[in-house]
């Protein structure tokens, strides 16, 4: 029996397991293969929905589905915390048990590390967690006047375009409520542009200027002063705020670090085409967990899961594993409360932007509901 | 001679090497030199620009076979 163990119940892990179950139907039925998915939560959170939650446009209940509902019934689900991988013994240890594997897929994502910026936990808000987003929703609703700073405090971080989206949505929110004149919006970014991709940055700067959204670049916060409500940067600047919406620094999983599979920030080095973990023929990583220069985004995890599941299934069936990942990614970009564009890109092809329009915005709103079909491996 | 720290960011793409420098410079003492190795050509432009903005000292940029070496000194 060939045992496949998938760690992580986000987009990458869920999709890899579901695709594998579809491709190995016969092997699973005949007891020649097994798929086990280990995750510490019994529900999956649709993280892109948090951007809408903070403006009261999605609710908590819409953002969760039971893992049991999402996973193919042929997959064995274990709600446990994975602690360490022993790559020599080909075994993974969890809080409850140990599992031997023939193939291991690590889809443990990324985690927020607000503690890297002293003072941030005390004075900052973020929407990259449910609790943070709910707290921020209440702050935005009651914010009457003053200065909001949207500050990206480290790269890489999840959903690279989300800080741009929240900035445009803040503009429209306060305009709608007749308070835009009394609210100043400042966006800060660590490099010398407002975004990593020049094609996107050009459009964003144009829209920022048209909407009187200010921005600062080469802005790397090292500390937040909660008492005086100030961000202090490595470049020697100080910036006041009334409401700080931070994108905290991100790190790879503790599992990757504890198992010596990650680099010093916890990102796992993989082959950029096969997604095999460097030095390990039987271990793959997908999604945010890898060190690849691609977006840490659900679509990337989705497209990587297609490749990894196809190759593992091929090997189990005795076929050559020829699927390759070429850096494919797709992101919607909300440019306001009723306007969006999207980008497709890969390792070789930069994105071509479509003029932001309502249709793409409504496509995104529809996809927020349809996502669960993707997670189940249907769409 | 000043203490020197090596940041080998070869294989990492823009802005990876710059972000590694940003992280490292926070942790070293004033006076320390940091040598960043990068295989991404844009680092040879972006890192000196950032060093200037941050008020640190750029000692030199050197092209080696398949990568660039950028030497920076933390001066404040």
**CATH class type of the largest domain in chain A:** Alpha Beta
Give the helix tally of chain A.
11
Shape of chain A: globular
Range of helix content of chain B: 25-40%
Arrangement of strands in the largest sheet of chain B:
1-2-4-3
Describe the structure.
The complex is a heterodimer of chains A (379) and B (76). With 379 residues, chain A is an alpha/beta fold. Chain A has 2 domains: 2-109 and 253-328, FAD/NAD(P)-binding domain (3-Layer(bba) Sandwich); 113-249, FAD/NAD(P)-binding domain, CATH 3.50.50. Chain A is built from 11 helices and 21 strands. Chain A has helices spanning 11-23, 25-29, 50-53, 67-70, 120-123, 130-142, 162-176, 198-210, 254-258, 298-317, 358-375, and strands at 2-7, 33-39, 43-45, 64-66, 76-79, 82-86, 91-94, 98-100, 103-106, 110-112, 146-152, 183-188, 214-216, 221-225, 230-233, 238-240, 243-247, 250-252, 283-285, 329-334, 340-345. In chain A, α1 (11-23) packs parallel to α10 (298-317). With 76 residues, chain B is an alpha+beta fold. Chain B has a single domain (4-73), classed as Translation Initiation Factor IF3 (2-Layer Sandwich). Chain B contains 2 helices and 4 strands; from the N terminus they run βαβαββ. A 4-stranded mixed sheet of chain B has the order 1-2-4-3, with helices on one face. Chain B starts with a strand and ends with a strand. The relative contact order of chain B is 0.26. The model of chain B has no long low-confidence stretch (mean pLDDT 91). The chains are: A alpha/beta (379), B alpha+beta (76). The A-B interface holds A 154-155, 190-192, 196, 218, 220, 222, 234-236, 291, 293 and B 12-16, 18-19, 22, 25-26, 46, 49-50, 53-55, 76.
């Amino acid at each position: 029996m060939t045992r496949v163990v998938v760690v992580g119940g986000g987009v990458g892990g869920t999709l890899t397991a579901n695709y594998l179950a579809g491709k190995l139907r016969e092997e699973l039925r005949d007891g020649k293969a097994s798929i086990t998915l280990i995750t510490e939560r019994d529900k999956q959170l649709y993280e892109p929905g948090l951007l809408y939650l903070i403006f009261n446009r999605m609710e908590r209940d819409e953002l969760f589905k039971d893992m049991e509902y999402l996973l193919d019934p042929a997959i064995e689900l274990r709600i446990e915390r994975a602690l360490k991988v022993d790559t020599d013994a080909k075994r993974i240890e969890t809080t409850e048990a140990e599992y031997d594997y023939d193939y291991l897929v690590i889809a443990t994502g990324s985690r927020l590390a607000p503690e890297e910026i002293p003072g941030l936990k005390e004075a900052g808000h973020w929407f990259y967690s449910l609790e943070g987003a709910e707290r921020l929703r209440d702050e935005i609703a009651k914010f009457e006047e003053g200065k909001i700073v949207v500050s990206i405090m480290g790269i890489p971080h999840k959903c690279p375009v989300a800080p741009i989206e929240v900035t445009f949505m803040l503009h429209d929110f306060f305009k709608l409520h007749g308070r835009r004149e009394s609210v100043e919006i400042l966006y800060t970014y660590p490099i010398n542009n407002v975004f990593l991709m020049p094609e996107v940055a050009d459009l964003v700067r144009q829209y920022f200027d048209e909407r009187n959204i200010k921005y600062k670049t080469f802005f790397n916060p090292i500390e937040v002063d909660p008492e005086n409500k100030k961000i202090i940067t490595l470049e020697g600047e100080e910036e006041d705020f009334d409401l700080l919406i931070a994108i905290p620094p991100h790190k790879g999983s503790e599992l990757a670090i504890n198992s010596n599979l990650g680099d010093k920030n916890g990102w796992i080095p993989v082959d950029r085409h096969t997604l095999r973990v460097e030095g390990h023929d039987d271990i793959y990583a997908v999604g945010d967990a890898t060190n690849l220069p691609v977006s840490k985004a659900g679509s990337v995890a989705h497209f990587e899961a297609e490749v990894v599941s196809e190759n593992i299934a091929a090997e189990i069936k005795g076929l050559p594993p020829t699927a390759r990942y070429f850096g494919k990614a797709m992101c919607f970009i909300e440019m306001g409360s009723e306007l969006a564009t999207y980008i497709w890109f890969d390792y070789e092809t930069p994105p071509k932007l479509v003029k932001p329009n309502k249709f793409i915005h409504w496509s995104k709103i529809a996809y927020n509901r349809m996502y669960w079909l993707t997670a189940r491996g249907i769409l | 001679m000043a203490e020197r720290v090596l940041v080998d960011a070869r294989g990492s793409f823009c802005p990876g090497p710059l972000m590694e420098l940003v992280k490292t410079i926070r942790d070293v003492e004033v006076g320390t030199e940091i040598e960043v190795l990068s295989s991404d050509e844009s680092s040879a432009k972006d890192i000196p620009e950032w060093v200037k903005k941050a008020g640190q000292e750029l000692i030199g940029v050197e092209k080696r076979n398949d990568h660039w070496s950028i030497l920076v000194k933390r001066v404040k």
